[in-house]
Input
Amino acid sequence: MLLDGVLSENLAVKYCQECKGTWIPAKEYEAWQTDQIGKPQSEVPSGTLNVDFVLSPFDTKAALCPECQRYLSRAKVNLKTPFYVERCMQCRGIWCDYGEWEVLEQLGLHTTIEQLFSNEWQSRSRERQFFDQERQATIDKLGSELAASVFELADALAQHPNGDFGVAYLMRRVTANRQPPNAKT
Output
């Protein structure tokens, strides 16, 4: 049993009193979305973004559309605590478990939810997650001070037309310093 409700900026929705989830009918979302034109849009968020969010226990379960009873398609939002936004591909309505809409708002993704369901966005999200993990591993291995220097140098080399020469030089120096003292170079 879904009840009438309103989300931010007068978006008419239906919500479940029991699970606190929100159904956003496509017609309501698309009309509301039109009013959002010109407001800043968000890119793929950083996976290290610390958002105060508790994952819904219902997020791991398949769900049916409250309007047409078809299975909802899921799009992963990769954060420290990843979650899924569901959408009906038939009637285009959107389901957000408790707290997910607020996270989408914080990330600036609430005005363009359809992008979450594109292969391009999901691919960029995975790339961003890998980048963040690699960066954190570098900090963990080298310490924050040396890692900051490495990141700064990497940015400078990436911008320089002969940056690859600098990278090759560093590789030779680092590997040469690891050879046993009696090794011929």
User: Anything to note?
Assistant: The first strand starts at residue 2 and ends at 7. The radius of gyration is 23 Å.
